[in-house]
Amino acid sequence: MTTVAEKLTRSEELMSMEARYGAHNYHPLPVVLAKGEGVFVWMWTGKKYYDFLAAYSAVNQGHCHPEIISALVQQASVLTLTSRAFYNDSLGEYESSSRIFWLR
Length: 104
What we know:
Layout: H1 4-21, E1 33-37, E2 40-43, E3 48-50, H2 54-57, H3 66-76, H4 91-102
Antiparallel strand pairs: 1-2, 2-3
């Protein structure tokens, strides 16, 4: 069984690794998340939280929504990601349709 002190030490280690090797564009809260489902996220220690930040509205539909996961897997099996150094056959069409949506 993992002690509270061991959990804190591992959390500090994980946060330190991100601080050392990651981009410094945010100052994260001292919570190390491991999974999410719906409106909830869990720390790697098992502690459950409501995700009130929702990745600043990027996941306001909830974590691991089955329809979104299905669409993601379907698209990833065709083309996972293109660099912005290239054009692709979907982005312009998406941008055009989303512009119409937001200008209503």
